[in-house]
Amino acid sequence: MSDPKVKKGGEASCTSNFTVKPLNPPQISCAANPGTVEVGTPSTITCTCTSPDNATVTVGNWTSSAGSIAGSGNSATLTTTGASAGPATVNATCTDSRGLTASTASTVTVNNPPPPPPPVVDKVLEARLALHSVYFVTAKPTEKEPNAGLVKSQEQTLEALATDFKKYLEAKPDAHLTLEGHADVRGSVPYNQALSERRVARVKSFLIEHGVPEANLETKALGKEHNLTSDEVKGSVEQNPELTKEERARVLRNMKTIIWASNRRVDVTLNATGQTETSVRQYPFNAADSLTLIGGREAAKKAPAAKKGAKAPAKKK
Known about the structure:
Elements: E1 27-33, E2 36-38, E3 43-50, E4 57-64, E5 68-72, E6 75-79, E7 86-96, E8 101-111, H1 123-128, E9 134-135, H2 152-171, E10 176-181, H3 189-209, E11 217-221, H4 230-239, H5 245-252, H6 255-262, E12 265-272, E13 275-278, H7 290-294, H8 297-302
Parallel strand pairs: 2-8, 10-11
Antiparallel strand pairs: 1-3, 3-6, 4-7, 5-6, 7-8, 9-12, 10-12, 12-13
Helix pairs in contact: 2-3
């Protein structure tokens, strides 16, 4: 500065130093909760935004690489419905009152939901599917009457089997029933083979008529092969809890007829993953139509006579 009244030496000067500091941008950090979700489950993204210079700040410009994001203030919700499994990157921007910005990203891991647990198999239902074989009347069905030979008690057994098996398929859709046809020792080999084929075909058609898918049924016809022995039939009789002492004794007195009747059957085997359940050959001695099934002399008289020259005995199964 200078003093105009002083002609010489009327000046003085001074200096002052100051520092120009740069403007500090805002700082932002975000976190996802939860950080891992299943497809269709949302996640909340919360951000913290501050200014080192204490400027006013706001959070916005939400974007996401998967799903959809919507928010207000410092938080937003990531919706993963329709998203593919994998990382979803959520971006947000913090802006201060001076126009300075900072951005950050947060990652949410999106997983496919786990497969549903396998249906629980009803063990009681499973046991019922292997309770009984199905028995036929002597020499039935015939070629002319392919649907004959199933008495009422055996139809009821098959109806219950069809109902249970359809329910079982809901838990194990790949399960199947094997139907194995048999005939007793009377009759020629060709005759009994054809007879067992008709029997197993009749059981199969009956189950299909009652809603069992044909693809879940397998058939075998064994003729008089694998006939139950007298010891096996006797053991079945002695262990049958439904028979009284008197009934058991009466059955054992007629073992030959009972053995024949016990071999006029179709066995049912349940086949499912990891298991095989075979039918219990429990002859229905107490069924209302058991006498028709057992047959005897009158039934044998009605059986078709063997053709002249044929190798079949007089009685046919």
